Amino acid sequence: MLGMNILSPGQKWLFAGILTILTAFIWTSSAEAQATVTPPSQSAAVTHTTSPSSHSSAIEMEAEEEAKHLPLYAALPFVGILLSVALFPLLFPHFWHHHYPKVAAFWALVFAVPFLIHNFHLALYEILHIVLIDYIPFIILLWGLFTVSGGILLRGTLVGTPALNVQMLAIGTLLASWMGTTGASMLLIRPVLRANAERKSKAHVIIFFIFLVSNIGGALTPLGDPPLFLGFLHGVPFFWTLHITPHFLVASVLTLLLFFLIDSIIYKKEDSAPKEKIELAQKYPLRLEGMHNFLFLGGILISVLMSGAWRPGVAFNLLGIHLELQNLCRDAGILLMCFFSWKTTHIKVRQDNQFTWGPIKEVAYLFIGIFITIIPLLMMLRAGESGSMGFIIRAVKEPAHYFWITGILSSFLDNAPTYLTFFNTALGRLGMTEGEMAYMLRGVVEHPEHQVFIEYLKGISAGAVFFGANTYIGNAPNFMVRSIAEEAGVKMPSFFGYMLWSVGILVPIFVVITLIFF
């Protein structure tokens, strides 16, 4: 395999040691998580060392009540920023390039100002909640993985033939479940771009990279994608997600086969990979620089796992928002890994890796607008059948329904709360508590609806992960991969142009998965 041929014998031992440490930590974390689940018989007796203040409880109750009355048109600012991301780069590229932070701020204010006027305390609470609990950790994790992976340089000459491209995409797809879709994407996108630098047509390579490495590859463990990690935090066993391995294999193998077919046709038409480049490949063998950054990537993964396995029961109340100690430690750990990476990696490695801050800045600016304008949609989903989106909740009854509706919403909304919404919908429909569910999935207790819930959960998990590939904003690394590719000179399709690819390639694959498994 390409990945192991790159390493010297000593580096292979180092890499094996890192994997061993991570595997041991995963098993330990899984065991700790299992030990902390409250048995069904004791679920009513669960207590917390930190209780919400009466003020925050009142705000949360008010938010629940307000969510029931939110009209669908409250989502218009989100639609506005979505259309801006889709159309402005196409229609007004010069304006967009210089003013996209202002566009994001405009749509955020279009939602926030009326909301603050209507109910100042509730609006402040919801905005602070999504910024402190969701956006800041989201950006810290992305920034951490972006910074550390930018210090790992693959030297040598790679020739972007269809065979090599398939091999690199397959490696990235397998890595994504163990180091996260974002980590795998940031690690491999630059080598893939360099391998295809001489190709005339290469946008399709990056599109399939987003399909596979940035999304489908994250389906096998909670480390792979945020919704699965959220399920782990709510009692789903760490290795339960291996139940959707057949779905993963069908999705990844069919996508790789289609890519090989398309790339082979384009490659033959281009008559690329001249003999001189192949000779260079023989002259300059592959090698990795900045290998010590794998330790820092491991530190980031351990920080994320720790936040799910360690529950000290300590939280800090900031204007009604509960900032839990384990999450603060996770963010601090990620920032520390970034600091070490930046200080210990030679600047020439980053320069040769064409590392700049542009892509992460673009993601940070645009996603603060997206996160704020998405608030009313998430509130409507939390309201369940009582809210304006209740017709969707009521319509979901079969495993295939869970797969498609979780997936379609995850294509445009944050897939983590979407996963949690339908996860709770499935529990409620079957009259099951989280404690019962956790013990049932571990085989400790039996439940008459055991198999039904498993099929629901397979649909929810696969939908939340796979469908994130449908749009540039469907999953965290998608937009960043596009930004890095464009910075490297690749002309990527527009928002809707990308969706033509995703609908044409992925939707038929999702139909096949539905027919086989649901």
Briefly characterize the structure.
The protein has a two-stranded antiparallel ribbon. Strands 3-4 form a two-stranded antiparallel ribbon. The chain contains 23 helices and 4 strands. The protein has 518 residues and is mainly α.
What can you tell me about this protein's structure?
With 518 residues, this protein is mostly helical. It contains 23 helices and 4 strands. Strands 1-2 form a two-stranded antiparallel sheet. It has a two-stranded antiparallel ribbon with strand order 3-4. A hairpin with a 2-residue loop joins strand 3 and strand 4. Helix 3 crosses helix 16 and helix 5 packs antiparallel against helix 6. The radius of gyration is 23 Å and the shape is globular. The two termini are 34 Å apart.
Shape estimate? globular
Secondary-structure-based class equals mainly alpha
Distance between the termini: 34 Å
Mean pLDDT over the residues: 81
Strand order, biggest sheet? 1-2
What is the helix/strand order? HHHHHHEHHHHHEHEEHHHHHHHHHHH
Strand elements, count: 4
Q: Whole-number radius of gyration?
A: 23 Å
| Low-confidence residue ranges | 1-7, 9-54
| Main sheet specs | 2 strands, antiparallel
Approximately how much beta-strand content do the residues carry? under 5%
Binned, the helix content reads: over 70%
- Continuous helix count: 23
